[in-house]
Write a structure and sequence with these properties.
- The protein is mainly α.
- Helix content is about 60%, strand content about 0%.
- The longest helix has 15 residues, at about 1-15.
- The chain is extended, with a radius of gyration of 17 Å.
């Protein structure tokens, strides 16, 4: 878990090194979450194995969604459950 947290923090730090990307992420955080987006390190530190397990468990209980971006989407078959 600590390795995953460190990896995520490093990825975000690299992304935030570019001021344009940092501004984009902070704008998204403000718009969608009403937060300034600067305290991501502290939020990552509060994540526990039990909170991840609970989130995954809840997610797996919901209907799955297939998202396709770009390309020839008409070649993808239907996966609707009747």
């Amino acid at each position: 878990m600590q390795s995953a947290k460190a990896s995520l923090k490093a990825r975000l730090a690299r992304r935030f090194a570019d001021s344009a990307k940092r501004n984009e992420e902070m704008t998204k955080a403000l718009y969608y979450l009403n937060e300034n987006g600067e305290d991501y390190r502290a939020k990552i530190d509060t994540v526990s194995l039990s909170s991840v397990t609970e989130a995954v468990s809840r997610a797996l209980k919901t209907p799955l969604t297939l998202v396709v971006e770009g390309g020839e989407v008409s070649t993808i078959g239907s996966y609707e459950v009747s």
